[in-house]
């Protein structure tokens, strides 16, 4: 870090510390029983009573603290993640709009909850709450206002909330009519069909450059640096299921030339054709010598390949549990061809962006946040929406994956929490991990 940033951090630390001490003094003399409301059921009267004006010194301290905290937040957040947050604002607005339409805030405050309502219990209250609805709430801030957002904000949410609450669509994960996809789809086409239409070739090129390049900037360093590819044996065969744009293989093969990995791209014919056509020239040698291959494979059919590592990035989250189990059935059968084979799943995990500490007075959230979830929890939850809105499917928590993978004959061997909003779950065949 630059010297200037280090001294700036020190200046912020000193200022925030000093102002918090002053605030503590001021508050305890003004209202000795008042406690911050972050984790409380009711608003904090000291701050939230619209008729109450805090003493001027307290108001000034609060204003200064917000300024310093904004500077600190900005300093510790990479620009690319700030942009993700801003770019995904419409999803947050859609979530808030849904919460307002259903009057969720009032339901939480009333009996039987009196201010604290786990999502599962809220679901029982409505008898019909869908996982889509739960996902929408997961990307709201910890304490959301029940105030109605402006008409402009609602407009920018694009009608997602209607689809989340409509009986015809709210339970769907299908790419044609899931709440999020329905808003994106044009003239009845799914996003994939739209992109596959030759008339939209320019759009495909744009998204190839824009979306893949953009996502890659957010996750590539972690994919390469946070999973121990270097531990794999020389010459390991890596099968890339539903490889899509193929960038993972390019990145890994470029970074580890001395490992002589064999990368097997699997996908549908047109995707493989496109990939072959635009494959980078500096990797053509490995294509010619057979270290990089392209294999036509529907992953819902018995798999024709054999390999040491079965890599699936963003595959399982596109499917409902039944379909995932079907897919895993084919992969685990194929894994049995190679002793010691592992499956590595690169996904976003549904995460708790905030938690309730055991004792709100003495502990801070960062010491209690669950470990088995994506880092950048709030961004992770928001990112799940861009997946939903393009392809359908459902994101899962670590615990949900564990149950599903166990049912599918796998056991999570190691969880790598990436230094971005994704994780890698490394799985072994159950019978091998038990042996
Ligand atoms: C499921 S996502 C995977 C994204 C890709 N792994 C990545 O990291 O960018 C989309 C890709 O999966 C492919 N795909 C979808 N259904 C498939 C299937 N049944 N069998 C094989 N590939 C499939 C699509 O053609 C597309 O290239």
Commentary on this structure:
By secondary structure, this protein is α/β, with parallel strands linked by helices. It folds into three domains: 3-76; 80-171, no CATH class; 198-434, Rossmann fold. Helices cover 49% and strands 10% of the residues. The chain has a seven-stranded mixed sheet with strand order 3-2-1-4-5-7-6, sandwiched between helices. Helix 17 (321-335) links the parallel strand 4 and strand 5. The chain is globular and about 75 Å long. The protein binds S-adenosylmethionine. Residues 242-245, 248, 267-268, 271, 297-300, 313-315, 318 line the site of S-adenosylmethionine.
What's the arrangement of secondary structure elements?
Elements: H1 3-30, H2 45-48, H3 56-76, H4 79-87, H5 89-101, H6 104-109, H7 119-126, H8 131-138, H9 151-156, H10 160-165, H11 179-184, H12 191-196, H13 201-225, E1 237-240, H14 247-255, E2 262-267, H15 269-277, H16 284-288, E3 292-296, E4 309-313, H17 321-335, E5 342-348, H18 377-391, H19 398-407, E6 410-417, E7 422-429, H20 430-434
Parallel strand pairs: 1-2, 1-4, 2-3, 4-5
Antiparallel strand pairs: 5-7, 6-7
């Amino acid at each position: 870090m630059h010297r200037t940033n280090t001294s700036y951090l020190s200046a912020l630390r000193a200022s925030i510390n000093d102002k918090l001490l002053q605030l503590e003094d001021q508050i305890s003399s003004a209202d000795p029983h008042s406690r911050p409301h972050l984790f409380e059921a009711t608003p904090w009267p000291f701050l939230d009573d619209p008729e109450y004006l805090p003493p001027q010194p307290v108001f000034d301290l609060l204003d200064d603290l917000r300024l310093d905290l904004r500077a600190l937040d900005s300093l510790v957040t990479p620009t690319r993640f700030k942009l993700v947050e801003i770019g995904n604002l419409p999803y947050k607005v859609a979530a808030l709009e849904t919460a307002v339409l259903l009057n969720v805030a009032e339901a939480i405050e009333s009996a039987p909850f009196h201010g604290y309502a786990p999502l599962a219990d809220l679901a029982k209250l409505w008898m019909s709450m869908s996982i889509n609805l739960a996902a929408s709430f997961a990307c709201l801030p910890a304490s959301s206002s029940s105030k109605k957002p402006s008409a402009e904000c609602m407009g920018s949410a694009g009608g997602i909330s209607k689809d989340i609450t409509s009986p015809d669509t709210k339970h769907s994960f299908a790419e044609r009519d899931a709440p999020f996809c329905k808003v994106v789809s044009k003239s009845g086409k799914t996003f994939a069909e739209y992109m596959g239409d030759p008339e939209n070739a320019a759009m495909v090129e744009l998204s190839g450059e824009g979306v893949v390049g953009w996502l890659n900037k957010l996750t590539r360093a972690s994919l390469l640096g946070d999973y121990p590819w270097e531990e794999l044996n020389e010459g390991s065969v890596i099968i890339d299921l539903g490889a899509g744009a193929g960038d993972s293989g390019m990145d890994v093969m470029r970074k580890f030339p001395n490992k002589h990995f064999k990368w097997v791209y699997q996908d549908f014919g047109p995707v493989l054709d496109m990939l072959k056509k635009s494959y980078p020239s500096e990797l053509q040698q490995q294509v010619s010598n057979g270290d990089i291959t392209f294999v036509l494979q529907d992953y819902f059919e018995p798999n024709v390949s054999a390999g040491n590592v079965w890599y699936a990035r963003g595959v399982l989250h596109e499917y409902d549990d039944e379909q995932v189990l079907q897919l895993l059935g084919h992969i685990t059968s194929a894994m049995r061809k190679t002793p010691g084979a592992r499956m590595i799943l690169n996904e976003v995990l549904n995460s708790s962006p905030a938690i309730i500490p055991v004792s709100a007075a003495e502990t801070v959230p960062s010491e209690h946040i669950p470990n088995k979830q994506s880092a950048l929890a709030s961004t992770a939850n928001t990112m799940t929406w861009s997946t939903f809105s393009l392809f359908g499917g459902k994101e899962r928590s670590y615990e949900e994956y564990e149950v599903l993978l166990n049912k599918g004959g796998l056991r999570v061997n190691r969880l790598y929490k990436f230094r971005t909003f994704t994780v890698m779950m490394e799985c072994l065949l159950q019978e091998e991990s038990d042996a």
